[in-house]
Amino acid sequence: MTTIPDRYLAPARRLVAEIARSLDADIAVRLWDGSLLPLGSRPAPPLAIAIGSPGVIASLIRRPTLDRLIQHYAAGQIGIEGGTLIDLGRAIEAGGDSRRRIRSVDKWKVAAALWPFLLAPAERPGRGRAYAGDEAGTGRAKDDNRDFITFHYDVGNDFYRLFLDEHMVYSCAYFTEWSNGLDQAQADKLEMICRKLRLKPGDRFLDIGCGWGALVCHAAEHHGVIAHGITLSDAQLTVANSRIRDKGLEGRVTAEIRDYADIEGTFDKIASVGMYEHIGIANIDRYFGAVRRVLAPDGLFLNHAISRRAKKKNRRFSARAEQRALQKYIFPGGELDDIGHTISAMERHGFEVHDVEGWRMHYARTTELWCERLAARSSEAIAIVGEPTYRIWMAYLAGCSLAFGRGSARIFQTLASRSARGPSPLPPTRTDLYRP
Cβ distance 76 to 387 under 8 Å? Predict the structure, then answer.
């Protein structure tokens, strides 16, 4: 490609060269004129960050926020060539502590290289699909729960079908072998949940946040329970009810639109898979109170939830830029607890905790496969939701995979019963979980 004369090219090359001295990553930067500038010793690495114009750099200087970076990425003004954001993250991490290396960059030389961009017209970033209300859910009312869920699932069932497994399970899969495909891993996850709950014929089973109905149908088909699922998504309920009819499970499986706070009845076994993250830290007491109210005295409850690492000091989490972006573009109202706080809250509400299992690397692998599957069907995804939303979802799935891989995000399955002075409702060992 012929180099286009541009008075901002020279300072851009100086900027990249200065960063490369400290970063030494096996990636490159492709400037708007087509030139490729390596950030490491390899002269032409296959992976590159593409910058569409000097105005993108000018925009980021004027507002150096994660949200502005996301907007430019969603608009295609920043891109990744030769791979995905997962590949980019791994390439940066391969050289060791990237934050320490970036801090070693000569800030005066970087500032000198950036100075000319203060005179450049800033590129106006595009805007992807974003939640229009209070995405953090501060002081939320119960009615907000449905608005939050509706926003997330309004991208449509056809969009989710592009990257989920055949059963449309939208939560962490369980890999008995890391080489297993997504369909097998999600089927194994459904079965493991049923085994942990020791489901048996005739049990009254509740799935809080039932999604498209995979777990309630599996539990009824393979364990003979009477299952009921609740969701706040009309799109999910339509698929769940269709699946129930297609499998001939009417009378044994039901599903409805209902908030967890309004659950009625009594259930022998309860599962909540990937729903706890949506309720907000301030609503944990109401959540566990509602679950315990409908759990039978000798029943079991499985809480499957993403968590954050506990802070060194005993204080609640601050709203980091990554969390605010996730709330704005993907999960409005979402908030992560730490597992220690979750367990103590369960005990305060009359639960006895029997088992806690970490599935962190299982979710790193799940989100990696989702990212790969969505990328493979990019043209279909763009036709359904538009390119900005597709790109934001790719960034979300890639970011999740990297976060779980490095340990900044975690996930646990916690099995509990109502506290009792008598015998536990569980067998003496876990061997029944792994029978053939």
Answer: yes
Q: Which of 172, 194, 210, 400 is catalytic?
A: 400
**Contact between residue 153 and residue 393 where contact means Cβ atoms under 8 Å apart:** no
The least confident of 191-195, 197-201, 249-253, 429-433 is 429-433
**152-192 confidence digits (pLDDT tens):** 677 889 999 999 999 999 999 999 999 999 999 999 999 99
Phi and psi based region of residue 56 (left: phi greater than 0; alpha: psi -120 to 50; beta: remaining): alpha
C-beta of residue 49 within 8 angstroms of C-beta of residue 78: yes
pLDDT at 318 over 80: no
Question: CB neighbours of 262 closer than 8 A, spacing ≥ 6?
Answer: none
Q: Phi/psi of residue 201, each to 5°?
A: -55, 135
Contact predicate 63/130, CB 8 Å: no
Q: Which of 325, 317, 405, 320 is nearest to 361 (CA)?
A: 405
Report DSSP state, residue 123. P
Helix (H) or strand (E) holding 296: strand 295-308
What is the percent of the chain where pLDDT is above 90? 61
The candidate with the shortest Cα–Cα distance to 284, out of 335, 359, 233, is 335
Q: What is the CA radius of gyration of the chain?
A: 24
pLDDT > 70 in the chain, percent: 88
Two structure tokens written together for 235? 């799109």
User: Beta strands of 21-179 (E only): which ranges?
Assistant: 28-30, 36-38, 48-51, 78-81
Instruction: Give the Cα separation of 13 and 22 in Å (integer).
Output: 15
298-413-326 Cα angle (round to 5): 130
Per-residue pLDDT, averaged over 301-315, amounts to: 85
Q: How sure is the predictor about 331, in pLDDT bands with cuts at 50, 70 and 90?
A: low
DSSP 254: E
The answer to whether the CB of 375 falls within 8 A of the CB of 84 is yes
Residue 400 catalytic?
yes
Full-model pTM = 0.89
Cα 381 from Cα 374, distance rounded (Å): 7
User: Which tokens in the block code for residue 363?
Assistant: 């979710």
Sign of CA dihedral 309, 315, 317, 318: negative
- Count of Cβ atoms closer than 10 Å to residue 313 Cβ: 5
Q: Please give the Cα distance from 32 to 9 (Å, whole number).
A: 9
Indicate if the pLDDT at residue 357 is higher than 70: yes
